[in-house]
Design goal:
mainly alpha, two-stranded antiparallel ribbon, 2 strands, globular
Length: 302
């Protein structure tokens, strides 16, 4: 049927270029991230004076309607300028390291890990069905983590650092188990799969456990990143979240690109490095936020 990954696949007498497909998806992800950033710029901040609109005359309402298009363009340009300024601030640069890690691991658990599970022939005839089961347990981890650390974190007296640290440890445990359980060539295996051996006998239970841990750790990072962005940039939330989504989307697209060429252990090493420095960066910003609390801000209400 086919040749190696990254080359041409022959099916029913016709040839298909896997490399072209990868480039197409990579370009599409990049374009989508740019479009999403522009859409964030168009988010309008609520104006409290609009509440008095019912008491205004019809002429004033017509004038506001005619100027709304110009206002939207102006606000979009202003938001774009603010986002550029935010990009070079100390806090945003540090948080961008953490955001970059979430983009890399987003691609890993949403696509690469499922591919690895489906490529391991030693899982038997059920390796394809494990892909769907893996996605279910990733979702369970996301829901559980989002419920615990998103809703209950309002009553936390220790800030956001313990949750991020927990997410880091959970992910590192998952990466170590994946390293032991999955063969190194699983991400770039041909269509027929791989018969390579890992450091332990491939276990379905360990594979599904890692799926749950990946989802749980991801929820730890995302809930706390959204929380601290809302706290630090409450007045410029649209530009701040635009930068957040832009960095995350770009890194997810980059991870998708290199995932077809790097062996599994190298991909895990990249995420471990970014995860470590991303955690340290988040800690630094959180300590600065704690200093703001000491000056009287309502920190835990965010």
């Amino acid at each position: 049927m086919s040749t190696q990954s990254g080359e041409t696949v022959e099916f029913s007498g016709r040839s298909y270029s896997l490399e072209n497909d990868r480039r197409t998806v990579f370009i599409a992800l990049t374009v989508i991230s740019l479009v999403g950033t522009v859409l964030f710029f168009l988010i309008r901040k609520p104006d409290p004076e609009i509440v008095l609109g019912e008491e205004e005359s019809c002429d004033d309402q017509d004038m506001e309607a005619s100027e709304s298009a110009q206002d939207n363009v102006t606000k979009a340009v202003d938001a774009f300028k603010k986002s550029l300024k935010l990009c070079v601030t100390k806090e945003m640069l540090l948080l961008s390291v953490t955001t970059a890690y979430t983009g890399l691991e987003l691609t890993f658990f949403s696509g690469v890990y499922g591919t690895c599970i489906g490529a391991v022939n030693k899982f038997g005839t059920e390796e394809k069905s494990l892909i769907g089961l893996s996605g279910i347990f990733i979702g369970i981890g996301e829901i559980l983590g989002g419920s615990l650390f998103g809703l209950l974190s309002k009553n936390s007296r220790f800030g956001r650092n313990p949750v991020v640290l927990l997410g880091t440890l959970v992910h590192f445990v998952a990466f170590y188990l994946i390293f032991l359980n999955m063969p190194g060539d699983a991400p770039i295996a041909p269509v027929e799969g791989t018969n390579s051996s890992a450091y332990i006998r491939p276990s379905k239970e360990v594979a599904i456990l890692c799926s749950f841990l990946l989802g749980l750790g991801d929820s730890c990072f995302n809930t706390q990143l959204l929380s601290i962005l809302g706290f630090l940039y409450s007045e410029d939330s649209a530009p701040a979240f635009a930068v957040f989504k832009f960095v995350q989307s770009i890194c997810a697209a980059v991870a998708f690109f290199y995932s077809n060429y790097l062996l599994l252990h190298w991909q895990l090493l990249v995420m471990v490095i970014f995860g470590f420095f991303g955690t340290i960066s988040f800690f630094t910003v959180e300590w600065d936020a704690a200093a703001i609390v000491a000056r009287g801000s309502d920190y835990r209400s965010i």
